[in-house]
Amino acid sequence: MSRPTTNRRRFLQTLAATGAAGMYLTSTGRAFAYRSPIERPVFATIGLRNQGWEITQKSFKFADFAAMADVDSNVLGRNLDQAAERQGKKPDGYADYRRVLEREDIDAVMIATPDHWHTKIAVEAMRAGKDVYCEKPLTLTIAEGKLIEKVVKETGRVFQVGTMQRTESDQLFLKAIALIKHGRIGKVNRVTCGINAMEESPAIPVAPVPEGLDWDFWLGPAPAVDYRALPELRQGYGGGVPLYSNCHYSFRNWHEYSGGKLTDWGAHHVDIACWALGASDTGPSKVTPVEFTLPVEYRDGHPTVADRYNAATNFRIRVDMPNDVEMIITSEGDNGILFEGTEGRFFVNRGKLVGKPVEALAENPLPEGAVEEIYGGPVSENHTANFIEGMTARKQPISDVWTHNRMLEICHLSNIAMRLNRALQWDPAKREIVGDEQANSFLARESRKGYEIEG
Fold first, then answer.
1. What are the tens digits of pLDDT across the range 98-152?
2. Residue 26: its pLDDT value, please?
3. Does the structure show a pLDDT above 80 at 25?
4. Where exactly are the structural domains of the chain?
């Protein structure tokens, strides 16, 4: 890590004077080079609602936050206050993320904006000399994934994708992969990823933009459209915003900004499935939409109305994977992953790992170090810890962009197949759809003028 700049030293010295830096220095964790306030990494978070705060609050133990950015001043103010309580000093707040990237004292940024902003901010952050932790799904299109790979290679920045099931969840997913690797169900012939259904919406009218929200900047690379919302508020996780809108928590329901459940939960479970199958550096040969429901009419792959959610609500996708493995991605059944092989089957999600092969571990446990072998060493304290370990060693962390993009291609292709209502043949070497010019046109998306993504 480079020597701290004057501004960075001043920020950290202020933290040390308040006792905050010492308060959050880790005494557990493994292999941290940041052992004094002057050596702890300085972070900034861009995009603060929900998951933005979640990954930030997990990271106070390991890093000091000098800045935060959000286009909603209400969200920004609330998170700045929360951060001040946690670390003893209030970060600087910005409406424009570019002010964050201009600062030489910031080592890394955590990006938790809506999906359509991920690639632009990540590329600009790397070009500005920052390491990056970006929430999943990393991209809105397959072309964006290729661009991020290119920039990571050119800049040498460390890049962690927020697929935290690789590190956290009590290592249940790591244990599941270890079961596969040690042949506890024989040859795998099917894996089913249950990722839940997506809700429909009523017609959502044009509404006044909420006070404090910069709607045009929120849209960014996406097409310029009116803000839409109904007055009923969402409760529970992500609450306090309209239950039905084209912004805030509901952005995942719109193809303009995300990919529905396929790139939300799919980015988690398809990732683990591909890792277990040893398919993290390749891809499928065919993606078939067996059955699905789109909540609005589509024409030539595009929704014909603009006032309702348009991501698929129910679906069953069949994916032809290497070694004659069939992957099913479905909105039905339990959320989690069912592995089926020639000698048994088991199920895993964030709360359980169950099945006869799991029960058999009582008599025939996995070899010592089996989980660590999957992870590539001792498992990190959490996903941020693994990121900082990568920053220290200047190597890519457990959720690297290459394996993430390979599995996310399956999720993106599934959405394209449903939008066009046909199976797609995929060439994993060329990373393009075979013999389908119209389908290939969905591999990239044009950015709105003034918000272009520069390579």
1. 999 999 999 999 999 999 999 999 999 999 999 999 999 999 999 999 999 999 9
2. 34
3. no
4. 6-164, 174-344+404-443
Q: Of the given ranges (19-23, 101-105, 138-142, 164-168), which has the lowest mean pLDDT?
A: 19-23
Query: Where is pLDDT greater, at 22 or 201?
Result: 201
Contacts of 219 (CB under 8 A, 6+ apart): 225, 448
Beta bridge pairs of residue 72: 213
Report the Cα 349 to chain-centroid distance in Å.
17
Angle at 255 (CA atoms; ends 253, 259), nearest 5 degrees: 70
| CATH code of domain 174-344+404-443 | 3.30.360.10
Q: Phi and psi at residue 354, in whole multiples of 5°?
A: -135, 155
**Which pLDDT score, from 0 to 100, does residue 427 have?**
97
**Confidence band, pLDDT 50/70/90 cuts, at residue 2:** very low
CA-closest candidate to residue 257, choices 300, 223, 308: 223
Residue of 223, 232, 210, 238 whose CA lies nearest to 306: 223
Measured CA to CA, the distance from residue 421 to residue 439 in angstroms comes to 10
Say if residue 174's pLDDT is above 50: yes
- Taking the CA of residue 118 as centre, how many other CA atoms within 13 Å lie in the half-sphere pointing to its CB? 28
Write down the CATH number for the domain with range 6-164.
3.40.50.720
Q: List the one residue out of 139, 133, 142 whose CA is nearest residue 119.
A: 139
Calpha distance 100→299 (Å, rounded):
41
Tell me the mean pLDDT in the region 359-364. Answer: 98
